[in-house]
Design goal:
Layout: H1 5-8, H2 11-16, H3 19-22, E1 23-25, E2 29-30, E3 36-37, E4 41-43, H4 45-56, H5 64-70, H6 80-84, H7 88-101, H8 108-114, H9 117-132
Helix pairs in contact: 5-7, 7-9
Amino acid sequence: MKKYERLYEFIPYFETVSEEEVIRWSGSKKDAAGTLTFSYPIYDQQVLDFIKICSSTDLLDYHYLETIKLYGVSMEEGQEDTIRCADQRLVAAILTYYVRQERFCDGLWAIAIKNKVFLHLLNRLLELENKDN
């Protein structure tokens, strides 16, 4: 069994799922007292399961911002080329970035799914693991 087998099980999901299928937004509301509640993302259960499994592995890099900076990666650009030649440390840092930054940028997971970032990260991780065996 591969080390991150539970994560690899999501590859078919990320190959076919669309942004529209994984997220819906709660409506903004104003209550009787005039307090405004902003909309927030509500994710498909499979996305939540993926994030939970990611968080339970030893893969997350709690110094991910420093690691990304060390590698000279800009997170504002497309990640496909960077991921294609990333080592496991950088894969872990980029994955951690997307997992953890959702709390600061609502909808980031949906963007990662739309841009196939999670798919590319899982494929690269699997490729690296196969090389080591």
